[in-house]
Write a structure and sequence with these properties.
globular; alpha+beta; about 190 residues
C-alpha cells in the first residue's frame, strides 16, 4: 500500500512539474498541440494538426533549414482548412518537384523578416490610418488592414483577404500568426 501511495505521489509531482514547465513557457495551443517558445518555427509547426499541409509544402520547397534559422521571422501560417479552399489539385500540383520555384515564391510570401507581434502590427496600422504594407521575404508587399479592435486582416497582391485567427504564437526564432486563407503573391 505504501509503494502504491508513493508511486501516486511521484506521478502527481511529475505531472505538476511538467504542467508548470509548460505554463512557465507561455505556450499557445495551435492545432491541438502546445507551441513552445523554446522551439523554432518548424519544430512547433510539425506538431500542429492544423498545419500538416503547410509543413509538407515547406518540406517540398526545401525551406525547412531557412525556417529553422536564427531569424527572427514573422510567419503568417495558413491552416489546412485554408488550403482546402483552393481549387482541387492545386496543392498536389504545387508540391511537384517541377513547381518548386512557384511553391517557394508562395511560401516565402507568408514570411516577413523581423518579429511583428500584434501590438507592432497595431502600431503600424495606427501610423498608416488603418492600413500598412509589409515587405515579405519573397520581395512582394503584403498589406495589413484594420478590421476593428484587435482584428487584423491581411491582403495579398491579388486582393484576397485573410483573417488572423491566432496571434503571437511565440517561437525561438520569431512569431507565428495563424490565418484562415491562402494568400498569393501577384
Amino acid at each position: 500500500m505504501k509503494t502504491l501511495l508513493r508511486t501516486a505521489i511521484c506521478a502527481s509531482l511529475l505531472l505538476s512539474t511538467a504542467s508548470m514547465a509548460a505554463m512557465s513557457q507561455n505556450t499557445t495551443m495551435v492545432g491541438g498541440a502546445e507551441m513552445y517558445p523554446s522551439k523554432n518555427i518548424v519544430e512547433n509547426a510539425l506538431n500542429s494538426k492544423d498545419h500538416t499541409t503547410l509543413v509538407a509544402a515547406v518540406k517540398a520547397a526545401g525551406l525547412v533549414d531557412t525556417l529553422q534559422g536564427k531569424g527572427p521571422f514573422t510567419v503568417f501560417a495558413p491552416t489546412n482548412a485554408a488550403f482546402a479552399k483552393l481549387p482541387a489539385g492545386t496543392v498536389d500540383n504545387l508540391v511537384k518537384p517541377e513547381n518548386k520555384a512557384t511553391l517557394t515564391s508562395i511560401l516565402t510570401y507568408y514570411v516577413v523578416a523581423g518579429k511583428y507581434e500584434m501590438k507592432d502590427l497595431e502600431k503600424l496600422l495606427k501610423k498608416g490610418n488603418g492600413t500598412a504594407e509589409l515587405k515579405t521575404v519573397n520581395g512582394q508587399p503584403l498589406w495589413i488592414l484594420n478590421n476593428g479592435p484587435h482584428n487584423i486582416q491581411l491582403k495579398d497582391g491579388k486582393g484576397n483577404i485573410a483573417n488572423i485567427s491566432t496571434y503571437d504564437v511565440q517561437q525561438k526564432n520569431g512569431v507565428i500568426d495563424v490565418i484562415d486563407t491562402v494568400l498569393m503573391p501577384k
